[in-house]
């Protein structure tokens, strides 16, 4: 689909910008890099959501009913809800469908942890549900409606896809969440970012399984790729460790060629759990 | 030409000051900030090369160069192996109390207080040195004389009186002098510090957005400004499109805002770049102190301080760019930070755009005008013709198509005289000064304008 192509292109451009910013005069501009990382994340979500589209088709019929229930609950947030895009919407729903009744209040809080990363967001969402002790692997296992793989594939991107607004042009999926997201910033600020996220390293085996499906057998070393900051902080050595013997000095050449190679390898290795913020 | 709307006349006295007349301007001459003094008698510009040029208004109404000095030089942070740019990010004037001028200038890391003073007398008749300054042979001195002050050619000297350094780990984006004229704030991406103008070795941190874990970073401070009258109030805007009003009386650390101005985003218009274009690039209090003007990438909004949930007015500056955001992202144009300005009576707001266009919006009549600041178009004392950007076919000669816009020509920095209808527009390395010939300043007799047929202001539908 064309928006997937565009998402890929935007991701490449964004990575190139982050890369080039390291060699710019005056040092890295925090503001610009933050904005670029937000675009990168949006594009990545769209790009990755497409992978889950086919797999989640099984789940969507069963989950659609619950989705309608939640739509009704969030009526007050939006004047008219448009048809949710089945794939990622229902994937996101299926994940949280387990503690079903508290889902509505979680609607706004879903967005709270957006920026902290998918896993943390989901984990904290689970926490917010009155101490539900569900953890990702529990959810995957107990899901009655879909195979574990599809469940966790959805799960691995759930918070970001279902908590995020419709990113693609003209795609008005999940308006209630969009609206909730617009207030997210305020609530996030008020509650502070001090909510302890569940351990970021609790990357489940499910995620690896999920990504194996997508990456055509290439095993994603999620434990190494903990976040985007680590990647850039180590000068791309984390990116390139598997595939080539390129030294860091080469990657520091600020020509678009090496930036491009880094982009492509980055796209393969991007962990859905990563937070796309460049730290200083 | 008839005057249309309060302050929106486009029959103007025009001046252009170019810093480099070559066809390929030196990037060090690119103007990075423009600011009128509090009386409007002086106008300061800062450029990428760290230089400050001060213009003074002559009795006839024109602005001429008064003083030029090198404010900041490139530095190197050895700890971080980073070069610190000498580009002047902001200039702010102190109120003028006596003959000397005081202004604050800042680059990414260091703020300086400059004193600019005139000298028109010099002492002559020293005992120990001769007229050229060479030390005299003591054995040759036979008598003592008292040095006397004699008139000399006017010399304008600039000297740094204070240097405020090492207080910002991130890049400084704003400085703002408090109405108490004793303190000022400086803001970087994550923190706002409060200084006393006389004390350089310490500052108080009043806003800190740095998360414990930088990976949790969600927003940065983009602009901060003190309220024009209330010395305890300050506003700062962020990359998430919010503007906060903080009260320094309520607590020492103003992380908790007193008010939060944020407009809900229309879900239907979301795209990859929604967050990007909502980042606020400038914040200005109205002269009255009642309103806030914010500028994001595509629009300018007027907020009533008493209403937080949405602006009272929204002006689309160049909404035709909404469909081109991806291209603008690629070219980095989407990161351009446009400033905005109020006129003296808060009835008109002004902001820049691309193709060397700048726009003015009359708040009462909702009329707006697009004008161009360019060497080719402007003759001295010419009348500016309104321009229009069309999306489809050109309907008028003066129209320009969206696809023909030159995105390398951008008016990021604009300033409006505090009381009169005089505006300063920076277009790359050129400074344009436009004056309304119907200016209430009383200089009517001087303005002999060669004008064409009376231009009409464009009618645009109310926002």
UniProtKB/TrEMBL annotation, chain B:
A GO CC term assigned to this protein in UniProt: protein phosphatase type 2A complex
Keyword Translocase: no
Any one GO molecular function term: protein phosphatase regulator activity
Keywords assigned by UniProt, alphabetized: Repeat, WD repeat
PANTHER family: PROTEIN PHOSPHATASE PP2A REGULATORY SUBUNIT B
Family: Belongs to the phosphatase 2A regulatory subunit B family.
Protein's name in the database: Serine/threonine-protein phosphatase 2A 55 kDa regulatory subunit B
Species: Electrophorus electricus (Electric eel)
